[in-house]
Amino acid sequence: MCSAGCPLTDQMDRLPSQVIRDLQQDDITLLESNAMWVCASCLACEVRCPKGVDLAKLMEALRQLHLRKELDHVSIDEMSPQEIAKLPQIALVASFRKKTG
């Protein structure tokens, strides 16, 4: 039910229901998933969830865990010059500040 309400499941490598199951099983590979980055926090999953799980908050918590491990979701070194040119300047500044403290 939760996954059926999500407008972005076609872009996620794990469905919202799989994210919940992986959390229950302490599956550390969940931090390598793109689902937490794709989630728009639109709350469609929470509205449809019969258990009232706030998946948007869980996705935010996963993003925070990932960032605290200082793992980059996207490496600037792997981006083309065209992609870098399209990045907002604030993203580059934030990345620099994250690396330099």
Overview of the molecule:
The chain is mostly helical. The chain folds into 2 domains: 2-69, no CATH class; 73-101, no CATH class. 53% of the residues lie in helices and 0% in strands. It has helices at 2-5, 16-24, 35-38, 44-48, 55-68, 81-86, 89-100.
Produce a short descriptive summary:
53% of the residues lie in helices and 0% in strands. With 101 residues, the chain is mostly helical.
Radius of gyration: 15 Å
Percentage of residues in DSSP E strands: under 5%
Broad shape: elongated
Largest sheet: none
Distance between the termini: 42 Å
Which stretches of 5+ consecutive residues score pLDDT under 50?
A: none
Summed up, the domain count is 2
> What fraction, in percent, of the residue positions are helical?
40-55%
Order of helices and strands: HHHHHHH
